[in-house]
Give the backbone structure.
Amino acid sequence: MTLRRKKSLSIVLLFGLALFLFAFPLQKLQFGDSNRKSIDATGSDLNFDSPEKTSILQKTSKYLQESKLVYNPQGTNDYERKENRDTLQIISLQHPIKVPLSQVKHYKEKTTVSRDFLSKKIKAGVGEMRKRFPTAIILGVKKAGTRALLEILRMHPNVIGASNEVYFFNGYHTKGLEWYRQQMPVSSPGQMTIEKSPTYFTSVQNTQVVNRMFIFSRSMAERLKLIVVVRDPVKRCVSEYTDMVARSKKNEIPAVDDIEKLILHDNGTVNADSELVKIGLYDKHLKKWLEYFLESEIHFVSGEELAKNPLEEIKSVEKFLELSPFFTDRNFRINKSKGFPCFLPDPAVNVSYCLPSNKGRKHADIKRTTLELLRRFYQPYNKQFYSTVKRNFRWS
């Protein structure tokens, strides 16, 4: 064998050895990963209704604090854990694929804004722009002022609010967590995402809703902050009835009976099972939430004060959400004809945003005797509610 042939053979052997050494670990990694249980990034098979032990949730919270997780855009989660699989699905979705900047719509104010205000928004939006899970949820209640609260909070530079009511925990949880995240607006790391679904607090599926939200909250790196807007239950009931009458005239819903037929028994007593009446039993609804959440995790807002004195009420919410001070009396202007506040995102520019025309409309005429029956019915529930939340709302 010539020297040249020996050199050629040596090169071939060395090349083959190098190729073997390079390919072997890849092959080993591939076999190792094939045996690993994959996590469905859509979260579609997440079972919120499965029994969850407090110890598992506490362990998960500790795990979240101590672990540094990496989510690979290709979908491979580079960690091995023995924790509950449902909870790991939630954890993995804390690190979703980022939204390319080319797909992010630029922020557009509803009104003209000054350079100073826009500067605050830009500073709040520094960082990776992507869709994130909400860290605060407005749970309810219906016809109490949830839309007004969300619109006010959206003026804050560090708050991004979902435009639509999602109803994930009491209707669309089967679509999966990734679907839920996709319903949220794009935000930066320094901004808080908030969603509102007014029926969460009083849902007929109350137990399941609370359980799902509790599992979700305890699996988050940052626990959920819950907000409930409440209103005099008598006025709330009449307000919802007024809305039903208006919708029936537009043929959006079937014709509506007199309110007495909807809320009273044949013997003239209040029907506690009526949907219009049940929502106002705030203390009964709250008891179920307090079986899962701490009192310090739920903040109550007075719908009446939000309309009459919005600054004081929103300052309390601002503190609860641990937001930097932003609101002043210059951000509000009361619409005297309706009694609702109009909002000035930027006081430097005298342009306001008011709630839609259906807000603050005149209530339907209800018999005084019917209103008095409702007041007497709600009175003991109201007193118990005041005691539980340690605030007197002074409802009639």
Q: What stands out?
A: The first helix runs from residue 3 to 34. The radius of gyration is 27 Å. Residues 19-113 have pLDDT under 50 and may be disordered.
